[in-house]
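#lab-general

N.A. 3:47 PM
ok so I finally got the sequence cleaned up, no stray characters, all 448 residues accounted for. can someone with queue access submit it? mine expired

B.Y. 3:52 PM
send it over

N.A. 3:53 PM
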Amino acid sequence: MRRCHVLLLALALPLLALAAVAAVAAPAARAPVVIQHALWDASQKPLYQQCAVDFERLHPDIRIVIRQQGWDDYWTSLSTGFVADTAPDVFADHLSQFPEQVDNGVLLDIAPLVARDHVATDIYEDGLYANWGRGAAQYALPADWDTVALAVNLDRARAAGITPDELRRLNWNPRDGGSFGRVAARLTRDAAGRDALSPAFDRSRVVERGYQTAGSGGMMGQTEWSPFAVSAGFTFQDAPWRAPLHYDAPVLAQTLDWIVALARAGISATPEQLGRLGAEAMFASGRVAMIAVGSWMVGYFRREAHFHYAFVPLPVGPLGYRATMRNGLAHAIWSGTPHPEQAWLWLRYLGSPACQSVVAAGGVVYPALRGAGALAAAAQRSAGSDPQAFFEMARAHTYAPPIISHAPQIKDLIGDAIDAVLLGRARASALLPRANALANALLKATPP
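B.Y. 4:20 PM
back already:
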């Protein structure tokens, strides 16, 4: 028996030695590359999480980790990450932040990658891709688009004798507000039940406002003032990145003065009365009958507004057309990413039909892919919302937000001036030309 054991051991030793050599020679399994992806909209996180699952099936050597933070914390964290070299590899971006990011060099120019991989860029809705470029450089792929329309409390409108057809045919002008101004006054009630057209109306005891602006809106005024001003002939600038700015235009001053007059007449709340509540919350609680809203709020009103309401197109301006900012988010790559090729693969997937169809089915936003917005609208209708007005506005006069160098300084100059006007501290015709001149002086030193 003992000799048998010795023989077996002698035979086994070479096999064990070979196994040990093979174990040393075999390379360890390579860990997947981790790509950090950041966004701010909690309602979109599950949709992009599904995109990540689908992407990882195609690319098992890449793992996507999605991080979501609220709007204010998101931008603070992103800015800190740029400075500390801890920014996410890929992140959702907004055009209000884009110019400063370009100036600071924190975005990867993907134009060479687009050309190298023959990526189609004409698959997106008109204008969305170009907004994220400068010269020959391209800094992002479009994610979605949005427009602005009116949200109207139909119960309040019916009580005031205002028909849906009347709401769809509204017009406005900066002199007397047009039919929009009259409807807003009819929808306003004081404590005695009188509307704002009544000579006896008590503007110090208003219980129901007819229209509410969301606040200042800074230099963009996306829902606050720009749709009115642009429909009256205002333009921010002649083209993205091009000086001069035109915030000294008399029609902008007239528009802002008209908005201030609504508050003085009691038709809308003053900024102090609005406080932190916000126009959307005022509308959802029934305290205001009309507000201008972005299409990203469709789901919010479905959840929060427990009365009959509708979205209708914005009023026609004095030049005969409706106007809306057509903004759009995008996904960008941090220029400091240690994994540019993997980040590019993920970015391409985010902008592809495979991922954008998942986003469309969620019915939260309208994806940038041409025609995908209709799929998102169908999902919204199935959930009980009618978003048709936002698509009507997409066929109206649309415009991009201001895109300009020296964005932080100019945001402060123009934004502070508009704040002061809407707070009633200064006349627009006096303050805006001075702010605009200072802004354009900054831009004169900037190469085109």
